[in-house]
Amino acid sequence: MKRTICCIQFDIAFGDPEENKKRVSLAMEEAISKEAPDFLILPELWNTGYDLTRLEVIADEEGIDSKAFLSELARKHSVNLIAGSIAKKSGHEVTNTMLIFDREGNLIHEYSKLHLFKLMDEHHYLTGGRESGLFMLDGVHCAGFICYDIRFPEWMREHAANGAEVLFVAAEWPLPRLHHWRSLLIARAIENQAYVVACNRSGSDPNNQFAGHSLVIDPWGNVIAEAGESEEILSAELDFNEIAGIRKQIPVFQDRRPEFYQSFVKRD
Ligand SMILES: O=C(O)CCC(=O)C(=O)O
Q: Which of 105, 177, 212, 261 has the smallest C-beta neighbourhood within 10 Å, fewest atoms?
C-alpha cells in the first residue's frame, strides 16, 4: 500500500488567523495541483502563531471556525488533512490542538499537545492535552504529535506499540536547535520502525527564527525528503509494505520487555 504526502511548510503570520487561513488555502491549492497527495500536513499553531499573550482574544472558540474552514478544504480537494494544530479555546482553557479530517471533510480525531514547552512559556498560556494521538485514516494506522512531544520517546513508542505505522509531527521548531530536530526525528523513525512525517514552519516571529527543514523519514531512518529553510511544499511517497519486512528483520516490538521498565530499582 502506497500513499503520497505533502508537508505545507509556510511562514505563519503572527497573531492573524484570517491572514493565515488565506495562506493555507493558497498553499493547499498549489500542493493539490502539483502533487495530488493523499495526505496533507500543516505546521503547529498555524492559526495564531506563538502570539501567546493574546490567545484569550485570538484563539478559536471551540475550534468552530477552523473546523468549518478545514473540513471544507479537505472535502473540496478530496484529501486527508492532518491540519497541524490550532490554538483552541474551551471556556477558560486554551489548548494546542491537532485536527484531523478525512477526504469527505469529516473530523475524525483531535489531539492536544501533551507536553507543554516551558522554554517558550507555553505552560503559562496553554493547557496540556489528555488524549491519545492515535487515529486511522485512509486505511493507515497513524499517530499525531506536536513539536516538543518528539523529545518524549516513551510517548511516541506507546503509539507505535499500539499499531501506528506513520508518526505525523506538526511543529514550530526554532532554528538554533535544528540539529536536535533532525536527530530526534530520525531516532523516532528508527526505534519505532515507522515513517515520520514532520511539518515545521518557516520564517520568524518577534521572538524566534524557525528552522523549516520539514522531513520525511522512512522506517529504516533514511531521510527521503527534506525541505530547506524557506516556504516549501515537500512531497514524498510512503510505501507501507516496507514496514513489515523491517519489523520482521529486527523484531523490537516482540523483543521489548516492558514489565521490567516500570519496576526498575535504582542501585547505589
Ligand atoms: O524542544 C524544542 O527544542 C522545541 C520545542 C518547541 O519549540 C515547541 O514545542 O513548540
A: 261
Q: Kindly state the cell numbers that stand for 185.
A: 526525528
3-state SS record for the chain: CEEEEEEEECECCCCCHHHHHHHHHHHHHHHHHHHCCCEEECCCCCCCCCCHHHHHHHCEECCHHHHHHHHHHHHHHCCEEEEEEEEEEECCEEEEEEEEECCCCCEEEEEECCCCCHHHCHHHHCCCCCCCCEEEECCEEEEEEEHHHHHCHHHHHHHHHCCCCEEEEECCCEHHHHHHHHHHHHHHHHHHCCEEEEECCECECCCCEECCCCEEECCCCCEEEECCCCCEEEEEEEECHHHHHHHHHCCHHHHCCHHHHCCCCCCC
* Cβ of 105 below 6 Å from ligand 1: no
Q: Which domains does the chain have, with CATH numbers?
A: 2-243 (3.60.110.10)
The minimum-distance atom of ligand 1 relative to the CA of 117 is: 9
**Which residues are the active-site residues?**
44, 113, 147
Tell me the pTM: 0.96
d(CA 158, CA 141): 13
pLDDT of 268 strictly over 80 = no
Cα separations in angstroms, 135 against 26, 83, 217: 27, 13, 20
This model of the complex carries an ipTM of 0.97
Q: Which residue has 503520497 as its cell numbers?
A: 4
Average pLDDT over residues 93-115: 98
Q: Assess whether pLDDT exceeds 70 at residue 196.
A: yes
* CA–CA dist 100, 106 (Å, integer): 8
What is the average pLDDT across 38-58? 97
CA of 122 relative to ligand 1 center, distance in Å: 10
